Every structure is written in structure tokens, then in C-alpha cells.
Amino acid sequence: MKTDTAHDKNRIIKNAVNLVKWQDLRQLTRGQIAYNVVLPYPFLLLSWWFASHSWYVLACGASYLFFAAAFRQAHDGYHHSLGTGKRTTTALLLLLSVLLLTSLHSIQATHREHHRNPLGDSDIEGSLAKMTWWQAMLSGVTYRLAIYRQGWHLSSRLNQRLICLEFGLIALLLVAVFGVIAFTVSAFTVLAQVLLYHIVVMILANASVGIIAVWSVHHDCDETVARTERNPLANFFTFNLLYHVEHHLFPAVPSNHLPKLAKRLDTLAPHLTKQRVLPSIDTVVGGIYHQWRKVTDGHHKNTNANDCPIRKHFT
């Protein structure tokens, strides 16, 4: 029965997808390609500049923008939709692996499995979506290690060599950084300060990215395998990454054109885009009211004379 329901669901989605024209959205201009390639790095330099002046709140804000933009660049790179050639895409993934302190070619392998079998038993990447939010948050480190392990087993020989190269370059970077910190002339130079800041922030970002990039866009999905978002500010500050159901239905479409694709889906298949990443105001207010009622109902129950545990001893 469950298999039949899943089959019917996939058939409905496929029929709706066939109504949407999307091939024209694969094309990118030279300006868009340049934007895709350059996007993360101004934010990286800005975060380093803030950190060099010990303005850590501003540095964290810039680091978030770098991480989100780098995640978008890597994500489009997994699907070869940056508009660049294969060698350039591979070079960008290697560079970002070192800067993000993670192996993007191992994540690429698990991400492709995530698209082949979304939220299925073999989908390690989507496994966080089956947990509660706090379980997903606490599973950050073990989740990333599971990604590396599965990514290695799913990879070709060439991809495995790239994974080894990425981990080797990350190890060299860490040795160089701690060498600078340990053997610097002064107690804490600006260079050591910036490098240490970047390492700490990237480790924390990698440990927490799962709940943002996986759980938030996949949890409790009923009719589709992913959620989406229409809040312009949220989409602006996540570089279109929250158009996630659009990406799953049309993974070849670059992030640049996901807003246009979203409008077409809203018109032709609105039932596929109704589940949002961010809760609505009504949902938030309703949740607060529900929790308030639970607290007040529990208080009234405890203050009921008939339920008083002390009074019972004297009746």
C-alpha cells in the first residue's frame, strides 16, 4: 500500500513537471558566469579584514555570507551548472574545499545519491530530515563523517584521488596555520589572529550546516521531497539556495534562474511549492498559543483542589 502511494506521488509530480518549460533556463550569460565564479571571495576577504581589526561580530556576518555563497558555488558545481568547464569546476571545488575545510568531492558523490534516491534508505545526506531539529543540530559532526565515508565508497577512482588531494591540502593548511601561530615573533600577530579565527568559524559552520542546508528544506515533506521559500530577504541572504523543491525537480537549472523557475511552478503546479522553509506568521503565533495553553492548562490542573497531592493525605 505504501509503495503504491509513493508511486502515485511520483507520477503526480512527474506529470506536473512535464508542464513546465525549463530548458531555456539552463543558459547563462558571461556576466552571470563571472558572478558565479567570483561570488564568495569578496565576503571571505571582508571577513578577514574585520577579523584583523578584532571586529568579530561583523567578521561572523561576513563569514556567514562567504559560507552561504561558497555553498551555492559548490552546489552548482556538483551539477555542472556554474557555466564553467569541467576543469575549472574541479579547480573551484578544490579551492573551496581548502577554504571551507571540507572535502567537496566526497559531498558531491553523496549529493548525487541524494538526488537519485531523495530521503530514501541510501540517502545519507537527507537522513537529518528524519530527525527532530535538536537531533539534527547535535548530529553535525557524526553526520559529516558519515558523508565522507559514503562519499568515498560512491566515488570513482578519479574522484577518490581528488578526495585524497583535498584532505591533503587541508592538512597542509592546518599545519602551516599552527606553525605561524606557534612560531610567530610576537605573541599574537594579525596574521595568526585572522587564520585562527577562520579555522574556528569554518569548523563551527561545517558542524551546523546540516540543519540549515538539509533539515530546514526537507523535514516533514508530504507531497514533495523538499520545501521552498518566497520571502525575498531570506532568498537574498541565502543566494537562492532556499528554492529547494525547484532544484530537486530541475537540478540542471543554475541557481541564477531558480526565481524564474519558481514563478513558473507557482503558476502551473502550485501544489508542489506550497510547503515553505520559513514558518508563516500564523504558524508561529499558533505554535506560541498552543504552548501557552499547555502551560496554563497544566497550571490550572496542578492548582485544582481535588488534584492537590497534599490535600489528598487529609481527606
Tell me what the structure shows:
This protein has 315 residues and is mainly alpha-helical. It folds into two domains: 2-272, no CATH class; 282-312. Helix content is 68%, strand content 0%. It has 15 helices and no strands. The N and C termini lie far apart (56 Å).
Structural shape: globular
- Would you count the extended β strands for me? 0
Tell me the span between the first and last alpha carbons: 56 Å
Q: Compute the number of structural domains.
A: 2
C-alpha Rg (nearest Å):
24 Å
User: Which series of helices and strands comes N to C?
Assistant: HHHHHHHHHHHHHHH
**Overall pLDDT:** 88
The share of residues in helices is 55-70%
Q: What is the helix tally?
A: 15
The SS-based structural class is mainly alpha
Beta fraction of the residues? under 5%
Could you provide a short overview of the structure?
With 315 residues, this protein is an all-alpha fold. Helices cover 68% and strands 0% of the residues. It folds into two domains: 271 residues, no CATH class; 31 residues.
Which key features would you list for this structure?
2 domains, 315 residues, single chain, disordered C terminus
What's the topology here?
Elements: H1 2-17, H2 30-38, H3 41-52, H4 56-78, H5 86-100, H6 104-116, H7 133-138, H8 140-154, H9 157-183, H10 190-218, H11 232-237, H12 244-249, H13 258-268, H14 281-303, H15 309-312
Helix pairs in contact: 3-4, 3-10, 4-5, 4-10, 5-9, 6-8, 8-10, 9-10
